[in-house]
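Weekly puzzle thread! Below is a chain. First person to post its structure in token form gets bragging rights.
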Amino acid sequence: MKLAAAKIASFLSKPDPTVRIILIYGPDAGLVRERGTAIAKLTVPDLNDPFRTASLTAAALSEDPARLYDEMAAQALGGGRRLIRLSSPGESIAASLAKLVGDMPQSDSLLLIEAGDLDKRSKLRAVCESETPLACAIPCYVEDTAQRQRTISDILKSENIASTREVVAALADTLPPDRSAMRSELEKLALYVGAGNTATIEDVHATVQDAGAAELDDLVFAVGGGESARAAQLIDRLFAEQTAPVAILRAAQRHFIRLQWARAQMDGGLNATDAVKRLQPPVFWKYESAFAAQLRRWPRARAETALRRLYDAEAAVKRTGTPDTALCAQTLLGLAA
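Winning reply:
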């Protein structure tokens, strides 16, 4: 069975003991690990207990397909439920999994499978999302803005840290999408603020800023501000860090979309400062004055032309054989100039 989103939280807090196979999958690898660990700890208090836990790999199962059944049939020495963990499985184990569902051992062992992103055609998903009550699938998708903000608020509350809407919005815009990385950054913020205190936007700016995102922000602001030499340096650095040209072009597109929107607010009668303040998510504090200055430099028509060039460049770099890094750099430096 496939768990509905509304039922996932209750299942994670108290898994159904009749379910013998749990597949956790999705593009948010951190959330997959977090949910897998939570279920594992509810099943076996000591995850280092060799009599109650076993770890399998897809390679081991391909060499010995019968091992999956044997592990599920084994009894724990000293009693208690056994946990079998299988990480990063391939579609090749789907047949063994289907056979296991059709002939489940009488023990109460639990098979916990932690996978990456699986599309709708996945055979692994098909087995675990079938009508059988013995298996279930729990998806872990990257959260939308509203869900992300709720998650951040919940984590801060668990750390005994109060927060405002502005702080949560800033964190949602800044933190990495991976749940583990997000939690790590929030724990760092909580340590900085201190339990029982309220996190401020200054605390966020002082402790939380993803380095890769910061360099992308520096680049798009250099392009928008006409700083060609600095833009060239940042482009070289991002390419050296294996940042994809499409990711760079999309960061520039987002910047010019925001410039275009804020400029429309100015054309409607607002000054640059007030137009900047209306942007959601808010502009990172250290870029506020630069963004306001660029609003005067980029009227809507020029911003629209820049966007067309960026969209055309993205389409071009996706074509096979295109010198993507050179085309990306040429487009950005052309806009800066």
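Puzzle host: Confirmed. Bonus trivia for everyone else. The two ends are 57 Å apart (CA to CA).
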